[in-house]
Amino acid sequence: MTAVRMPWRVPMSREARHGYLFILPWIIGFIAFTALPMAATFVFTFLNVSLAEPGPLRFVGLSNYRRLLGDEQAWAALGVTARFALMWLPVVVALPFLLALALNSRSLRGSGAFRVLLFMPYVVPFVAGALIWQNMLAADGWINSALRLLGVAHPPSWLHDPAWVTPGLVLIGLWGVGSGIIVNLAGLRAIPTQLYDAALLDGAGWWRRLRHVTIPMMSPVLFYTIILAVVEVMQYFLVPLVLFEGSGDPGGATRFFNLYLYQTFFTFQEMSYGSTLAWLLFVITLAVTLLLFRLSRRWVHYTSER
Fold first, then answer.
1. C-alpha atoms less than 13 angstroms from C-alpha of 31 in its C-beta half-sphere
2. Which residues in the chain come in under a pLDDT of 50?
3. Phi, psi (deg, nearest 5) at residue 258
4. Which whole-number Å values give the CA distances from 293 to 137, 162, 214, 296, in the listed order?
5. What are the sequence ranges of the domains in the chain?
6. Buried b / exposed e across 133-147, counting CB within 10 Å, b at 16+?
7. Mind giving me the DSSP string for 14-38?
8. Topology of 63-299 in CATH?
9. What is the rounded distance in angstroms from the CA atom of residue 227 to the CA atom of residue 219?
10. Residue pLDDT, tens place only, 253-265
11. Please, are residues 73 and 260 in contact by the beta-carbon 8 Å criterion?
């Protein structure tokens, strides 16, 4: 009697079974700590879950979404995040790339020591780094003292002026660019030297080699950096929480959207409305990421492509 082979059973090799067995802990963790909480928060958006005002659980339909549409604080916080992103993203993408170019130069002596010095701040806890920068950006801190030595009579009030607090936060963010430098440096080291040799034979100078060889070959790394930076900037809230205790000072210029979401969840304990804010953040991040992937077809070049 021959065994009947079920059409829905997909044949699996021994290596595949072992592979799924090894990633099983990750799958269980993803389902338990990511997929199920996401599903729960989506259900919360249609309920009235609130720890501040406990009561009978009931279905409220789209009332949380209607509240979101009329919440001026939420849209103002989203605007604060967008302004910070417009200033922060070019810096966090361009600066590590330029520093990696300098470290990759053969004429630079002691590049190994510079790599260590630029990466060391990244391993310092970010809260400690933020407190260090708070003293550096104070009215009588190192930054303003250096500006006075350069002839600036009235240095900006970095952390107390709404017009200057965003550039001040960008300066604080430079504390962690060491990881981006290492990633860009690895990408530069992976570019085949034959391409530079061919460009030199064609008479290409430094700028043409950078434009026609380095940047196209580094475009996947730059695209990877942009995607991570977008996700990171949409979740930005730790530094304003530490420096300003979540107050949004000065003048609401540091009330980022993720900070407003955090306060809604854990300070005001409005779980349903906090879940609605979280899903708005997720949809915006997903839309921006998909748009970047769409645009990447025009400028990102992979060596495996024909």
1. 5
2. 1, 306
3. -70, -30
4. 37, 34, 21, 5
5. 63-299
6. bbebbbeebebbeee
7. HHHHHHHHHHHHHHHHHIIIIIHHH
8. MetI-like fold (1.10.3720)
9. 12
10. 999 999 999 999 9
11. yes
